[in-house]
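Final report, section 2: Outcomes. Of the targets proposed, Ubiquitin carboxyl-terminal hydrolase MINDY is the one most frequently requested by collaborating groups, and we therefore present its record in full.
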Amino acid sequence: LADIIWRAGSGQGVLCLPSKSGVYLPESPQFNQDGVTEKLQLVPFGKWDELVTVLRRYIYIFQEEPGPAVLLLLYSAVLSRGLDRGLTNRSHLVSFKGSISNSVLCLLMTGRASPYLHNGVQYRGDEDNAAVAETGVLIRSPLGLLLWMGNEEKTQAANLGSRLKTPIFPVWLVICCDQTGLLFCLDRALMRDYRNEYNFQLHYFTSSHYQTSETILNISTRGFEETDPELPLSTLDKIIRTK
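The predicted structure is given below as tokens.
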């Protein structure tokens, strides 16, 4: 949590915590109270160790289930980034359906909100219109992202770049249609040397309430052969192959 907030603020941070009694934003025709937003207290930090200390003191708030953790982290990251910077490089943070956008994913993983998942800057335009710069992920992300949108065509259309597919740490947020999961390796050296990728284990947890224990995958890339296209693959297998 501290890393996400500090990275968004580029060396500073704002931690949003709920007040137990005070209400700072009254309900109005323009604002409906949600039990969290109207009670926010903003605590600014200029030192990393102070942010970590306060987070440890109030970590129980982020562990409540159900609880306000997602809202608090989103508010903290956005305000740490700053509205002046955040508003210039984001689309809508939350869709009309209530789901988070690519901008939020990029903000939380890289510290910079962007609706584009590709590497660097790409230009969109044609002969009749001036090229428009679309700024995606500028640096290798600490955490990774893997997508599966139901079929290969839709998945490729998301234009997910290698800076998210190949993160610094072997941890990937997995989005499969409307379901999310977490894929990770206990060996932190996995991403440092390609030879570590010959044989390794991945652990997978999904947001589905049907999964009561972790899934452990044994991955071997030695002597890799193309799979018979007639044989069905599991969705998780397809997701890993996009990497």
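The chain has a mean pLDDT of 85.
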